[in-house]
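Protein in question kept in full:
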Amino acid sequence: MSHPYATPGRLTLKCVKTHVYHKASSFSYQNSKIEISSYKTSAACALTDGSRAILHKKNGPDPEFEEGASYILRKSIISKRYGRLYLLLERKYKFRTAPINIPEEAERAAKDALCPPSALVTGEEEDIFSKNGYLSLQGKVEKLHKPRMTRSEIPILDLKLRCGASLLDVSLWRDEALTNLHEEDQVEISHLHASLLPKGNGKFNSSAFTTIKIEEPEIKKEEIEVIGVTEDQGNYTLLTEDDKTYEVPASFYSGNFADLIKQLPMRLSITHKNNHVMEINAVENDNE
C-alpha cells in the first residue's frame, strides 16, 4: 500500500543510475505456442539525497533525470511502496543545479535499489532455502518442461538445474519463461527467490530482475544411426541406436512423415549444438 507525503521545502538529489525496461505486458497462445502479445517500455532512475535511496519511474524510453546530474526539486512527493521510496513530481518544479557531493555508500545504496545485488551460490548450501535476498545459480539444465500459462495468463517454465551434486527445481516466469533454453545448456540465472514449499522441498522462482546467461555450446559433427522418429508441431526428434535423441527443425524435412519412417534405420551425418541439429546429410550405405 502506498502512503504519499509532500516533501517540505526543497529536495536536492543526484541521479546515480538510469535504466530502460522493455518487458512483455501480455501473452497469448498462437498456433499452440505461447507468444508475447504486447510490450511495455519504461524508464527508471536511481536518486539519492545522501541519506535516502529514491526511485523514479515513468512510461516510455526516456528517463526523467540524466545520469550523473544533480537537481533541485520543489513540491515533490515521495511515496513508500514495497519497502522502497518513489518520487512523484511535476516537471516545472525540477531544476538542474551544480554537482553535489554524495558519499559512495549512498550512491551504491541507490543503485542497489534500482537493481538489487544477487549473491552467487553453489546450490549445495544446507541453509540455501533460508537465505534472504536474491540468489544466482550456475549449472546445467537437466530437465526442461514445456512453457505453460497460468489462469492469469502468465507464462511459467519449470526446469531442473544440476548444480554440483544438487538437482534444483527452478520456475521461470513471464518473459524469462520464453527463453530459448534446451536440456544440457550451461546457464547462469540471477535474482532468484528461494523458498520452501509446504511439503518441505525447496524451489527457486525468477523475479522482475532475473537475467539468464546461456553458455555457448560446442559445435559437434558426427555420424548417427537413427532407429526411431517422433514429430511434434512439425519438428522432429531422432532416436539413435545408442539411445540418444537429437532435435531437428521442421525446415529440414518437407516430406511425408510416413515416408520418413519407411527409411528407417538410416545413417546420417549431423552438425549440432547440445543435440540440436544445425546441419544434416544422408550417409550412403556401403555395398560390400
